[in-house]
């Protein structure tokens, strides 16, 4: 065995775990993926997976500790292309016996995969919100208002993310911006379902992934991570509500 092999293997496993955590994977998926890859390379893995860091210890076939390290996870940016790509990679390692170098190259490739064009993301998200408005009884005017408000609100949220503004403040200002646009247009145009427009315009901010992972983690017995993700989801919900209420207060609607 190459004396650097445990270090390379451990570093690869920590990178995989950190990427999965930051991309929106639940704790059980991270645990199974790390174990699968470690077993394939002939190591026994002991790990502690938290929301902000991952601790990993590797033992060789002689039960000797050969690697022990802790790695902080990255900022939470949902990316299911990375989640599915790493899952696929882990099975390739098992079935095709990929070398550590090949596995590392694939991880690096996944990290730099290009995102969808920004305008496409903004447009599709805004269209989704306006579609919910239509399903809730909104007409063409309401749908147009929701589309514009969600488009601009998400743009504001993305810009604040680029400037590394606190994520909760980013959600708050996005919700406020969306509500101000919806209310401002309500003063220019008369439409029936203005309340529904306010509600559906901010649907893009709903923290679905934290709440889903919260439930999944708790059911799998990963209670600590589940509670942390649940609290994160409630904090985001509070920021959304605060932005919405402040916007409504400005227009004397509350």
Summarize the structure in words:
The model has no long low-confidence stretch (mean pLDDT 90). The chain has helices at residues 5-23, 27-40, 80-96, 100-111, 118-135, 140-162, 167-188, 194-201, 208-219, 223-250; strands at residues 44-49, 53-59, 65-72. The chain starts with a helix and ends with a helix. The chain has a three-stranded antiparallel β-sheet, with helices on one face. The protein has two domains: 5-111, no CATH class; 118-250, no CATH class. Helix 3 runs antiparallel to helix 4, helix 5 runs antiparallel to helix 6 and helix 7 (167-188) packs parallel to helix 10 (223-250). The chain is built from ten helices and three strands, in the order ααβββαααααααα.
């Amino acid at each position: 065995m190459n004396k650097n092999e445990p270090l390379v293997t451990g570093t690869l496993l920590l990178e995989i775990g950190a990427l999965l955590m930051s991309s929106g994977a639940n704790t059980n998926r991270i645990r199974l993926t790390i174990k699968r890859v470690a077993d394939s390379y002939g190591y026994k893995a002991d790990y502690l997976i938290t929301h902000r860091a991952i601790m990993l210890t590797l033992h060789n076939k002689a039960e000797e500790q050969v690697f022990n390290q802790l790695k902080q996870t990255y900022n939470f940016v949902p990316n299911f292309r990375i989640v599915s790509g790493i899952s696929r990679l882990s099975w390739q390692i098992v079935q095709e016996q990929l070398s550590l170098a090949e596995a590392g190259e694939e991880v690096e490739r996944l990290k730099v995969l290009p995102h969808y064009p920004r305008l496409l993301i903004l447009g599709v998200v805004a269209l989704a919100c306006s579609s919910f408005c239509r399903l809730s009884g909104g007409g063409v005017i309401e749908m147009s208002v929701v589309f514009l408000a969600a488009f601009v609100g998400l743009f504001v949220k993305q810009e604040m993310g680029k400037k590394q503004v606190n994520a909760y403040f980013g959600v708050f200002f996005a919700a406020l911006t969306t509500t101000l646009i919806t209310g401002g247009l309500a003063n220019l145009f008369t439409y029936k379902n203005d309340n529904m427009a306010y509600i559906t315009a901010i649907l893009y901010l709903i923290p679905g992934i934290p709440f889903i992972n919260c439930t999944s983690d708790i059911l799998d017995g990963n209670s600590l991570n589940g509670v942390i993700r649940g609290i994160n989801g409630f904090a985001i919900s509070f920021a959304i509500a605060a932005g919405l209420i402040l916007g409504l207060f400005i227009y004397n609607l509350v």
